[in-house]
Amino acid sequence: MSETSSRGPRMSVVIPNYNHGHLIEDALLAISQQTLPPSEIVVVDDGSTDDSLARLQASAARMPRLRIHLHGENRGVNAACNTGLELVSGDFVLFSAADDRLDAETVERASAAAAAFPTSGIVFSDQAEMSADGATRKLMPLDLPPERRHFSPEEFVRLMQRNFFYFHVSSVWFNVKLLRALGGFPPELRWHGDLFAAYAAAFEQGATYAPGAVSYFRKGQDSYSLSGARSARQLDVLRAWLAATRQRGWERRRAAFVAAAIWPEYSLRAIPVLASDWGYVTPRLLCRLIWLALWSKLAPFVDSGLRDRMRGVRSRYRRARSSTG
Asked: Is residue 196 a contact partner of residue 189, using CB atoms and an 8 Å limit?
C-alpha cells in the first residue's frame, strides 16, 4: 500500500471528560510526554460539576496543542466523542478516557502504522490496564505475532473467526474520514457504541495492528462500560446493536458482523435477544456464546496458575496460526 506524504499522518486525540478533574491532568501529562506529539488534543468537557474546567485551563496554558470544548450539560460519553470527532482536523483519532494513560511511544507507533497503511479503517494495539491508583501496569498482548501487520476487511473477518478478541478501544485509532461516514458512535448503543464503530471500521477498510501503541485503561468496578453491561438496560442495548446492523446500506457490513460472529455479550441471557433476529445467528456464534458463557461460570473455580498455562498454550497456538494465515 502506498505511503503518505513526508509530513506523515496527522494524529488527533479526543478526551471526553465528565467530573474527572482529579485524574485528567495525569492523562494530559502522559500525552505531553509522547516521543512524537499528536497534532492536536481536544478535550470535550461534558457538563462537569467538579473543578475540571480550572484544571483544564491550567493545562492549556502549558500545552499549545490542547483545545477545550464545553457541553453546557451532561450529554453522555458518545455525544462527547462525536463532538470531538466533528472538531478534529487529523487523519486518525484516538478517543482516550480522562482516566487513561498513554504509553510514551503510543502516538509514534500508531503514526508509523497509519503512515504505512493510510486507508486502514483502524489502527489497533494490545490490551493494557493499570490499577485504580495508577501505580501498577499490566500489558495483555493479543494473540498475534509481535510485528506490525495490516488485515484487509476479508482477512479481518477470518481473524475474528479463528482468533476472536474484543478491542480495548482506548488503544484504537480511527480513520477520521471513515468514522464520520459511519456516523460516529451511535448514542443508542451506549457503552458499546465505540466497540461497534471499531468493528464496523475494520470490516469496511481493514485494520492495522501496531504492537506497543497502547493506552493503559484504569481498572475499576464502576467504569461506564462495566457498570452499563451489568445493568438492566443491557438487553435494550443489545437490541439496538442488532437494529444498527439492519440500517439501510449496511448489508455488507452486517454480513461481516455475522460471518465473524461478533456480539457484545456472550452470555445465556443474550439468547432471547438474538432470537428476535435469527438472521444474525450462526452456528459459530452459538458455539462461541455457549462456550464463553460456560467458561465465565467455571473460570473462578480454576486455579489461577492453570488458567495462565491454558492461556499460554492458546496464545502460542493462535500466534502460530496467525503467522501462517
From this structure: yes
Q: Angle CA(293)–CA(297)–CA(301) in degrees, nearest 5?
A: 145
Domains of the chain by range and CATH?
A: 11-229 (3.90.550.10)
Cell numbers of 270, please? 443474550
Q: What is the pLDDT of residue 3?
A: 38
Query: What is the CB neighbour count within 10 angstroms for residue 212?
Result: 19
Please state which of the ranges 135-139, 196-200, 208-212 shows the lowest mean pLDDT: 135-139
Nearest in space to 104 (alpha carbons), one of 13, 211, 212: 212
The residue type at 133: D
- For residue 318 the three cell numbers come to 493462535
Q: In 3-state terms, what secondary structure has residue 227?
A: helix
Residue type, 152: S
Its pTM stands at: 0.92
Q: Are 148 and 120 in contact (CB under 8 A)?
A: no
